[in-house]
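Hi everyone, sorry if this is the wrong subforum. Our group has a chain we'd like a structural model of before ordering constructs, and none of us has done structure prediction before. Sequence below.
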Amino acid sequence: MFRSRIYLALIFLLTFFLAGCNQTEKLEKIDFNDTVEIGRVRPSQDSEINICVGSMITPEEGYAYYKKLLDYIGQGLNKKINFVEKRTYAEVNSLLKKGDIDVAFVCGGPYVIGHDEFGLELLVAPVVNGEPLYYSYIIVDKDSGIENLYGLRGKRFAFVDPISNTGKLIPTYMLHQLGENPQSLFKEYSYTYGHDRSIKAVAQGIVDAAAVDSLIWDYMDKKGSEYTQKTKIIKVSKPYGIPPVVVRPGLNEDLKIKIKDTLLNMHNDEEGKNILRAMFIDRFIEIDDSSYDTIRYVRESVIKRDSD
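Answer:
Right subforum, don't worry. Here is the predicted structure as tokens:
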């Protein structure tokens, strides 16, 4: 188990640097100590449930809070929670489709793909700063002198994940609106597979700019991160439906209702309220699939433009 986790961490680091970042600076390593290898987890039994929090959706220091959140869910359900960590959204969707993961915290883009391709279901969504919305931030080093997207020509850029909404889809759409694309504007681009990794990559000079989730940048900034303090936002996208909590197709209806009720009522419970406060989440709410139609529109527009 230990060797496998080290191996996964090394694979990530090698992938990141081979993808176009050849500097010697290093990014902090993800801690796999509280995760479960999906290859060794059977589809959940009556006494347990498999929940995935991808490394791309939370800063590494936020894992402790997600662990508390999952423990809280487990207590509410009286079930053992298997904390499954995966590196890419494609992996998460694949496991949800196969039924190996029951519940997942995902980005809006992967939700839309999963819903439209195999019936991935919305459960709840968080409300942050009074709204169930988030944005894509384009960030650069604060001392770079870059003030807009045109200033990124010939620069090194970091996306987060090939199917990330804020970390790939939306910034690509922004470029299309300027008559550009990643190949025409950037000298090179890479994938970090983590919004916090992209922020650190800009702050450390590994790349010149990046597209990141506003929730992650704001969270790190509120925590006094040295990395957000070294970066600045040069472009904010329009708002989009916030990353939801989803469940696999076919999950037991009674179990689904219990999980939903547990999350919807967290803010009414002192322990739950403290967990949410630490994560800068106001509460969880029910949300309709139509809240993600703008993401569908952007995705279809990007696919059509790329195919022309």
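For your construct planning: The longest helix spans residues 2-18. The CA atoms of residues 60 and 123 lie 24 Å apart.
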